[in-house]
Design a protein that fits this description.
Blueprint: H1 12-22, H2 46-80, H3 89-100, H4 109-138, H5 145-175, H6 188-199, H7 208-213, H8 215-236, H9 249-263, H10 266-284, H11 286-296, H12 312-323, H13 332-351
Helix pairs in contact: 2-3, 2-4, 2-11, 2-13, 4-5, 5-8, 8-10, 10-13
């Protein structure tokens, strides 16, 4: 706001006194603007963030379900058989369609529809809350990368523990067609009862350790997303006005203008979400394969209850020994086709 930007109809002495009081100690008291601040100066309520996250999750889950099934089968197929039934995006989808019909594309759809919206419904409010708490506790700016890493990791740990049982059920439903001992299209309730009866309640937390390691994914994705969004926005935004003391009228006006401009900059959100997801998925993809293989193993009758994999390290060792290092990236191409557009859609709906 320029120095002469006050209402010309106001008395001169009032204009001067207001301006003097609002520009005192500018350097000593910089303004910090919340990233999701609305045009009225208030941050959206937690339920609105939860609703936006859940809505994005529902849409993405329904749209990308076939690719999710194809990716999971690519990840576990070499554990079941030496023969590779699936390879690539199009061929995998065609094979599933030919052998199981359209219903095959939506195996595990019900638990996925429960899990994905629940995940994002909880994650986004927790992430924003953690950012504020960490920023205040450590007395550092909310744009600092360490704030984003800490907030994304803490929120991820909570939500992963909450949703892991549903991820296990989804994985079992998606892969039952390639397991001879699990023949027949079992329902979600039947699979749930079977896991409880044969393997016990702890089986619902298989792969949680790999998911915890997978927090490195969001620890990469969210800081890169925030940095890229700010960087791209800086190239397109108008030069920022001078900063004013936090809480002053001029500071609130500047904050509202900045928040409105950034919220409507959709291309920035899409580019930042795509780049951050691409980088995070490439660097941390092996944890997804490890998690899928741990969640898929069911210790069927006749094996004496002995699992093929004893844990995360054993999955990595056996996979590299049998399939080479690149075996840890099985299903990577399908995953990119699924996750990058899904990330763009999720963040686009939530942020915009």
């Amino acid at each position: 706001t320029p120095r002469g930007g006050a209402d010309s109809s106001a008395p001169t002495h009032t204009m001067l006194s207001d301006h003097a009081s609002e520009t005192t100690n500018v350097a000593a008291e910089p303004v910090v603007v919340a990233e999701h601040e609305r045009a009225d100066g208030h941050e959206p309520a937690a339920w609105k963030k939860a609703f936006a996250g859940a809505s994005a999750g529902v849409i993405c889950c329904a749209f990308f379900a076939p690719l999710d099934v194809a990716r999971t089968r690519l990840q576990v197929q070499t554990v079941v058989s030496e023969r590779r039934l699936y390879s690539g995006v199009i061929s995998s989808l065609r094979r599933i369609l030919a052998e199981e019909g359209v219903a095959g594309w939506f195996r595990g759809f019900v638990p996925a529809m429960l899990t994905v919206p629940l995940f994002w419904c909880c994650y986004f409010p927790l992430y924003d809350s953690m950012k504020r708490r960490i920023s205040i506790s450590l007395r550092i700016d909310h744009t600092d990368p360490s704030v984003h890493v800490g907030a994304s990791t803490a929120a991820g740990m909570i939500v992963n523990a909450l949703t892991n049982p549903l991820w296990v059920i989804r994985t079992r439903l998606q892969t039952q067609a390639i397991h001879a001992e699990r023949s027949g299209a079992l329902s979600m309730s039947a699979v749930t009862r079977g896991i409880w009866a044969r393997e016990g309640p702890l089986a619902f937390y298989k792969g949680l350790g790999a998911s915890t390691l997978g927090l490195s994914h969001i620890a990469v994705q969210f800081p890169v997303y925030e940095w890229t969004k700010r960087t791209l926005h800086a190239y397109t935004a108008e030069p920022p006005p001078r900063q004013y003391p936090a809480g002053s009228r001029l500071a609130r006006e500047c904050a509202r203008s900045a928040a409105v401009a950034e919220r409507h900059d959709l291309w920035t959100i899409l580019c930042a979400s795509a780049l951050s997801k691409l980088l995070a998925s490439t660097l941390t993809y092996p944890h997804e394969l490890v998690r899928a293989r741990l969640q898929d193993q069911a210790e069927p009758a006749g094996t004496g209850g002995k699992a093929r994999f004893r844990g995360i390290v054993d999955v990595v060792v056996q996979t590299v020994r049998r399939e080479g290092v690149l075996g840890l990236w099985q299903g990577y191409s399908v995953n990119l086709v699924r996750t990058v557009p899904q990330s763009m859609l999720t963040f686009g709906i939530y942020e915009w």
